[in-house]
Amino acid sequence: MTHIWQGLRSGKWLTALRMRAYCLILLALSVLIFAAWIAVSDGPIDRTGQPIGTDFSNVYAAGLLTWQGRAADAYAPALQHAAEKAVFGGRDVPFYGWHYPPFFFAIAVLVAALPYAGGLALWLAASFAAFLTAIRAILPRQETLLVAAAFPAVLINVGHGQNGFLTAALLGGALHWLDRRPWLAGVLIGLLAYKPQFGVLIPIALLAGGRRRTIGAAAATVVALVAISFAMLGSGIWHAFADSMNFTQTVVLEQGGTGWQKIQSIFSAVRAWGANVPTAYVVQASLLALLATSLAWLWRSDAAFELKAAALALGSLLATPYVLDYDLVVLAVAIAFFARHALNNGFRDFEISLLAAAWIVPLLSRSIAGVSYIPLGLLVELAFYVFVLRRAALDRASHALGAARVAQA
Question: Where are the bilayer-spanning segments (predicted)?
């Protein structure tokens, strides 16, 4: 008789047939949920009084403000909220803040050139296609598209009209092209600066790995983005962005305005447990130091590139105090790289079960944190990161043992 523990250890419980069935079931349920959600909505407003695509409304409103020559108003909460209400005919919709650097107005202007529904559809369809393309490039297997499309973080990102697809596509694409097209990887990393909190560890990894051409291309891309935003929107837009950062830090992050159960960082977990702000920052900084040290070691080592890439994707999620559950789309990048390495070299104990846990956790993290204050998403990410380092160490030991045996033969 096979015990459950033994099945978790070997991963034999996750057969190809079960994996396909689970994905199809979840994908079908997601489609039905969204169809019903839209069917019972009142135009672009759902039954709870929120806009369809919730957070996308801040992007669309910022785009309209830009078309009106008032881009800087997007950084003023009262003016941005008024613009969001105007999008929906003056209805009292919730406030969704605009926290992005000025060069992200390019996306806002593009989607705001269409009616709201069309802009939302264009945004989600284009970014989802980019996400699938990146994951398929990393793991070119028959089942990849189905597993990626059914990934629960996809459901969350679509529901919020958010940018998790774009973040994962840029990071995944950059890592995929890093060896073959280092300049292209640098451009993609530079574009990722629209979410600067995800770039904390990327320079450390690139420096440790000696990726100077990529670093140069990334820096040049960021400089070009800033220069273009100055030319198109004026220097005042950057002053407005800088002034808005205090609101973002204090209200959205430190006071938990977004909701502790939505934020998947160790900072949020510590704050939800009752710790004060300085303590939460100390804990987050301690984790960041551990991540930076271990990531530098890994990227300087001769470990497989897939493990380096998986660790960087995970570290990017863990390093920032402000990471939402829709950002967990980036977990797909880590899963794809780790799975590629394990499929080529064999899975070790508990790795298949861990990948399954990482795949399903976005579906559960918010609700579990909401009722129990257990940060399940954070815990799974930390376990995954430890497993990547463990795999690198075990692979290195196996290679050393193999070389020793060859030398003795």
Answer: 21-40, 103-132, 144-163, 183-208, 215-241, 281-299, 311-339, 359-388
DSSP state of 11: -
| Cα-based angle 86, 262, 163 (whole degrees, multiple of 5) | 55
Q: Which residues contact 50 (CB under 8 A, 6 or more apart)?
A: 93, 94
Where helices occur in 102-163 by DSSP H, the ranges are 105-112, 116-138, 144-150, 152-160
State the pLDDT at residue 193: 96
Nearest residue to 288 via CA among 404, 148, 385: 385
Query: Angle at the Cα of 393 (from 362 to 171), degrees rounded to 5?
Result: 40
**Smallest Cα–Cα separation from 153: which of 365, 371, 387, 379?**
365
Q: Pseudo-torsion of CA 194, 197, 199, 205, nearest 10°?
A: -170
Section 182-200 average pLDDT: 96
- pLDDT value of residue 2: 46
- Of residues 212, 182, 282, the one with CA closest to residue 203: 212
Query: How many angstroms separate the CA atoms of 51 and 41, rounded?
Result: 9
